[in-house]
Amino acid sequence: MSEKGTLFDDEFLKKLEYLNLVSNHMIPGHMHGEHRAKKKTDSGIEFADYRQYVPGEDTKNVDWRTYLRLDKLILRLFEEEADLPIYIFFDASGSMEYGDPVKFDYARKIAAALCYVGLLNQDRVNLVGFADGIAHELSARRGKHQVWHAFRFLEAAESHGATAMEKAFKAFFSSRRRRGLVVVVSDFLDEQGFSRAFDMLRYFKQDLFAVHIHTPEEAHPDLPDEVLLEDAELGTSQRVRVTPALLEAYAEQFEEHCEEVGGYCRKNGWGYLRTTTDVPFEDLILQVFRQGRFLK
Amino acid sequence: MIFLGMSAGLIGALLGTTVLAVIYLYWLKPPPQRVVVPSTLLWNRLLKEKKRNTFIDRLRWWLSLMLALTIGLSVAAGIGRPELSSPGRDIRNITVVIDNSATMATFTADGFTRWERAVAHAGRFLRQGSASGKFLILDTSGQAPPGEPGDRRAALEVLAGLTVSLGGVPEFPDLPEVESEVFFISDGVMVDGAPPEATLISVFEPAHNVGITAFGIEALPSEPTRYNAFVQIKNASPVAEQVTLRLSGGDNGGIRDTLTLQAGETRAHLIDLSGFGRGPVRAVVTADSDAFSADDYAYGFLPVRTQTRVALITPGSLYLENVLADQPKLSLEVIRPAQYNALVSADVYIFDRFAPPQAPGGPALLFLPPDAAWLTPTLSVVEVPDAPGWNPAHPVLRFVALEDLRIDRAARIAVPADAAGPRSYADAPGDGAATQIVVGTRALPLILVSDREDRIVRVSFALEDSNFPLQPSFPIFLANALGWLMDEQVALARVPGRVEVPLPRAVVTDLEGNDIVAWPLSDRTVFLAEQPGLYMVAGEGDRRLRVAVNLASTERSSVNDSEIASGEITAAASTALASAEPGPNDELWIFLLLLALVLVVAEWVTYHRRLTI
């Protein structure tokens, strides 16, 4: 894990500013995007619809001209934008402490960037670190002034333990949560499998954007002939005689695993982005934006 | 199968150790490298599937083990040098004596030399028989190291290192006291004395040869500054030959003479070298056909005096002045001691009963000099010393007889610690000492010569106190002394081969200025003169010698004086030659090593292609 206070340095902040500008440019007026849940209320600026007046209601929005013409009391309704809840889940299990840069740092940067953009869009952003349950949680925040609070939270987060996504989602969504966008930044190396966890999100009718992180070495490991593989999460070890055929089979297995996660997301109409830690995080964020799910 | 390199027990132990070592290394499981991975989730899935392939893996492991065992056993067996024991190739001990005397360099009609044919025969003898036999190669010039019969390869290596030795005294070598078949390959010219049990293989073939059998440059006793060249030519061919003799050297255009020599005729020539300048002289004989070239040329050095300025510093000596005045090519300046100073310049200084306080700037001849710092001191005066002994080999005393020398009074001078003599000199101009007593004894030296930076001849008596100037040899002594002081010496005569010169730590060069490898040996220097030529030897200080290395030997030029008739070959030799046809190499080590190499390459390739793991 990186040292405290160095993860979100000036350089990082400059990149965030840049990302924010780019996001504004990519979708003009996205602050009032169509995807947002819109309530038709009697307040607001933008006219939305008419409806029948019900006795007892405030008459300030009655359309008197229509009444004169049709002899009916019609209320004018206006649209009011509802804020979008964004739940950013970042993997804080032991498997994320791997690679150079370590996946956990990379995941936190992604979480920080998405959180920053969300807060600037006046969305309600929740940050949740998970391992074999909820490890860290920052309750819903809104507004730009919450950025530093979120950064401090992310910087303080630590990674250890096994991965149990289902348990974490269950614990989080079992308390009443509004429907929103769930962003999961993880390597999805879960002994219990990812599908049950994703099914739970579907059950809670949440929209999902999965960011699948792995290192290049994970996809194509370079191992000596005889090796004792030690699991970073569980601490168990396995003696393996490595052959090119085995490495090839492993690479295929890894690819299969990634395809499985991606395919599941696509099948449910969710967003999925796979990346390696050698890709600059800002490029990844731009890809997230381009997919259109996060910024609308 | 026979193992040549080791005993059966040892080879068994080696093979057993190899097998154990290979198997142990295969069973040895070094602790694997620990690698932390994010999760073994995917690995576990994969390894579960892979367990189905265990049989193939075990097969690969056994294949790899077998490969490693084969490689190890091949190398181990190769070290033991196994040989296939084939019927008809019995184990024999073979000793080959090869004649490498000078006449073996004679060419035969097929364009090869007798030596090359002899080497070919010797190689065939050494390659015959079982490899487990014992082999020894010996030569008549002592080049091959003496020893017991041994390895065939070692004997072949010795054979490859042998060359024809032009010099030395060739003789049949002593045979080791081991029972073996002895083959003597020779042309029968210079070496005899082969034991009766030796099978003689002749490489003799009559050849044409005309050669210089003697060559020398000598001064006339009556006129030491005049030189003659003595050349002796022999026609060793079986027919008469027309021979051209050419003598060249210095600035002279040379002398050319054509003569006809009958078969076996030897003719001597005395050639006046008055027309030649100082320097190397080369004599060459050529004939229409000549199969032996080493005796076709000979070298010498002509030390002709150039115009010499002599300063005689004397209170008055008629003997010296008169004799010196008669010397040719000499410009004499007579100076009284009072008039002498350091500015007097000459090529040679003669001090008569006088010595300057400091050494002159050149070589000097001194008669009874008084004490001076640069000379050893006078210890006493001896009245009527006994008749002295002398060293006639020293150039200063060549042709000088001193039997009748009578001296009334002589100074007993201190002798330098490193002075040599008097003794009989085998090699002119003496041994390596810088100072030599050439007349007198160590207790009473009468004439000392010093070969330091500037040469000095010191006579410890005055001419007036002896009858030396009245001796007939006095002018010769004076001429010799001047010649020696002026470095007017003919070259030392040597034969090709190992040459010793009486100068310590000297540098040797040939006529072209090429350095010749030389080794210091006590107070001498040794070098190898493979070919006739004139060699310059430069010692410490300014000491120099010239060495004329010439074959110049009637025996060596007589290339047809063989006791073996042409083509003569004994029945035993014929059988031996027939059986000495090269056969297949029965030693298997090379094949085993090749097999190991091939398997190592195969293992390497299959390992990198992951076929054997």
Notable features of this structure?
heterodimer; A: 296 residues; alpha/beta; six-stranded mixed beta sheet; three-stranded antiparallel beta sheet; 9 helices; 37% helix; 24% strand; elongated; B: 613 residues; seven-stranded mixed beta sheet; five-stranded mixed beta sheet; 31 strands; 22% helix; 29% strand
Describe this structure in words.
By secondary structure, chain A is of the alpha/beta class. Chain A is built from nine helices and eleven strands. The radius of gyration of chain A is 23 Å and the shape is elongated. Chain A starts with 9 loop residues before the first helix and ends in a 5-residue tail after the last helix. Chain B has ten helices and 31 strands. Chain B has a seven-stranded mixed sheet with strand order 16-15-17-18-23-22-21, covered by helices on one side. Chain B has a five-stranded mixed sheet with strand order 24-31-30-26-27, with no helix packed on it. At the A-B interface, strand 9, strand 10 and helix 8 of A face strand 2 and helix 2 of B. Strand 9 of chain A pairs parallel with strand 2 of chain B.
